[in-house]
Amino acid sequence: MTTIGIIGAGHIGSQVARAAIGVGYDVVISNSREPETLAELVAELGPKARAATAAEAAEAGDFAVVTVPLKNVYDVPVEPLAGKIVIDTNNYYFERDGQIPALDNGVDTVSAMLQRHLPTSKVAKGFNHIMAKDITTDGTPAGTENRRALATASDFEEAAELVQRLYDELGFDTVNVGSLAESWRVERDQPAYVVRQNRHELLENLGLAKRVNAAA
Questions:
Q1: What is the average pLDDT value for the chain, to the nearest integer?
Q2: Taking the chain, what is the end-to-end CA distance rounded to the nearest angstrom?
Q3: How confident is the model at residue 214 (pLDDT cuts 50, 70, 90)?
Q4: Is residue 62 exposed (0-12), middle (13-18) or buried (19+ Cβ within 10 Å)?
Q5: The whole model's pTM is what?
Q6: Is the per-residue pLDDT at 216 higher than 50?
Q7: How many angstroms separate the most distant Cα atoms in the chain?
């Protein structure tokens, strides 16, 4: 069975773990502290989950989900993720992360930053524009009318395809935004951010996105 290494056990990470275990995945999950601090969560998740360090979770996963605050992104282990697909759930909150001029000025994206930090991995955006609680409650079977849609973006086709498969397994349609350079379209303050939308509505909202501060 496929194992997901989850680096970050906050709201999104723990919900992705719950949802993934619900459809049959094994999960190795980590946080910024010791694995023992995740004992309660792992007990809730059951026998298909175990706690580990970030490096161990990265090593154990057939692919990984990185869901840490942007200010901590450079703590993500690099070598254990070499050659692997990495799903990036992050968004930029300057109140938490500090001001990052390249993001403020619209000349970089959050996921492109992670891709540069992980040069031998294949990063794809995922789960960044849905409230954590909705990950385990809003999914519906394929073909359901008005099925909720989520976006992905990647510079690697196989990474975007993996996110699409995972989304479908968890009950969501997918819209591929394109490269990581376009991933800002589903980030904070954009029309597609944390609203429930079907595939058609998501496409419309992507088209309405405006990068107000983008450099000329």
A1: 96
A2: 48
A3: low
A4: middle
A5: 0.96
A6: no
A7: 53
CATH topology of domain 3-208: Rossmann fold (3.40.50)
Tokens 């049959």 found at:
24
The b-or-e profile of 153-174 (16+ CB within 10 A means b, else e) is bbbbeebbbbbbebbbbbbbbb
DSSP codes joined into one string, the chain: --EEEEE--SHHHHHHHHHHHHTT-EEEEE-SS-GGGGHHHHHHH-TTEEE--HHHHHHH-SEEEE---GGGGGGS-SGGGTT-EEEE-----HHHH---HHHHTTS--HHHHHHHHSTTSEEEE-S-SS-GGGGGTS---TT-TT-BEEEEEESSHHHHHHHHHHHHHHT-EEEE--SGGGGGGGSTTSTTTT---BHHHHHHHHHH---TT---
Residue of 59, 115, 60, 109 whose CA lies nearest to 87: 115
Residues with Cβ within 8 Å of residue 200, at least 6 apart in sequence: none
pLDDT at 213: 65
Q: Which of 23, 18, 15 is nearest to 131 (CA)?
A: 15
Let me know: does 186 contact 208? Beta carbons within 8 Å. no
Least confident stretch, 25-29, 68-72, 128-132, 210-214: 210-214
